[in-house]
Structures
1.
Amino acid sequence: MPQAPGIVKSASGGNRFTASFVIDGIQYNLVGNLSPSVEEFNSFDASLEYNSAADLTSNQNFQGRLGNADLSFSFENGTKITGSLQMPQGMKTEVNGAGTWVVVN
């Protein structure tokens, strides 16, 4: 599976996040919701695994976890985001949610 480096960070409140990855000079942003709400988090060394860029153009549900030192989100279409947390969580939390991919040219 192809991979792309990027970042993931929490947004306002504890139930929203954004992620950004660049593939072949095109920026792909993901805006997502988490359930349950979590503490603020950032991952500046995130990695996106995907089958094709076509997988990064729609709404997707995911399941995952925010651990003491890392995060992992697995999407229905096989896409996966992983990374280490710069601001560790107090405890490992299982999460689920949905995100919308947006292509920025």
2.
Amino acid sequence: MDIVTAQEMYERDQTALEVAGLEGKWLMENAGRAVTYDLLAHIHKEHRIVVLIGAGNNGGDGFVIARTLLNLGYDVEAWQVVPDAKITGDAEAHKRIFQASGHPYRRLKSLEDLNTSLCRADVCIDAMLGIGVKGRLREPYADIVRLCNEKAVMRLAVDLPTGVPADEGEKDFEAFEAHYTSIIEAPKLSLFLQHAQPFYGKWSVVEIGLPVKQLPDHRRRLWEIADVKKTLTNRDAYSHKGSHGKGLVIGGSRQMPGSVAMTARAALRSGAGLIAISTDPGAISSISPFIQEATFVEGGGQVPDVSGYDGVAVGMGMGRESLRGEWIERLVCESKTPLLIDADGLYLLKNSLDALKQREIPTVLTPHPGEFAHLTGLSIGEILQSPFSHSKDFAERYGVYLVLKGPSTIITGPDGEQRVDVSGNSGLAKGGSGDVLSGILLSMMMQTDCLMDALSNGCVLHGFTADLLVQDGHSKVDLLASDVIEGLSRTFRTLSSSSISLRSLCP
């Protein structure tokens, strides 16, 4: 599923008009009817419904939605919240159809009248403003949004809630707080921003008939469990342990032995054939009972020899001594093995960033926003405000694969391709979750030819497992990183046995 900016959505619509010959009025009818039938899951016949209709395409959709609901026998009040002169083009055409169908509508003259209507309503549908919003709302939209947010009604939004910008880069906004949003054709960037996502509530995407094969490819998409099923490598019946990758995990210490143990165990649970651990010798006695299938190599005093391995994960629980920084630099500059750097390794990498540009073998960095802020010199706020552009700039500049972790994890390739994973839940907000993800990613890297597929699949497997566990047997409070490792077996069984909708599992 593609993810688009406002401009890219305009381009898609234009392609439909110019290349496929679809008329704007048809697309608006398709959009309004598709949204209506999507929203019906949240509406009952006894509900009193207020539809708020603004200018532009969103307002035109509103007239179609109101007409369709009235035709279906629902109790609907349609409110046009802008002057007649603002209703133009295709939206005006659908307003005329609405009137010709014998349906009345109300023009906003005072907030008091709208307040009275909202006080009687059970459902409020926001079709006021679409993807063109920039900056803070002007009147009357700002007052209407505040009024709606105060009411005890089910708030439903069309495409995106009024006031939420479609793109990243804006933080200071006031918006309609939807319980559910029916997104038209493709999610917009703001859906995946930490500060904007709550305004959408739950969501789904409706298809309106755009010519898919003719649309421009913006190389930015949502990666879901269906994509994992299509791209996950099958295990050959005649394979052996060497067929599934020999990996090395470097890190850990006497104070933090659990991190590399979880990374190694997660890698093996994800299908890696062989895993070795290089750590402080004093930590081995703590690690070995937890992961008996791993072997140990020389560690603690020097960089281990990584030749002969298919992948290396480094940094988890390593500590931040200057000696470890020299290790990271040597691995970046000298190793000829695919390299994943996480946790303390990312902190130590700061002084070796330029060396990444010269590296020809794939390098994967897996920061959370705080670690990415350290690497870039930006603030965490700046990262969260524009994660897509900052990730893309960094990955292209240094030639790395970047996995920016969060509620919406953004995976970016060195060529600028981006994928987003929205699986998982707040139960993963605990120490050790990142270590487990690194192990899964290491395993996927060694078993999948396409590295973008490997990283995208690994992220979804991690989050999907947490969702399965919370759905049955665990809560978001008690879930542990080690539970996710053991839950991977259920995930792989589920993937091989049935058709799954990822969002149906998201709490």
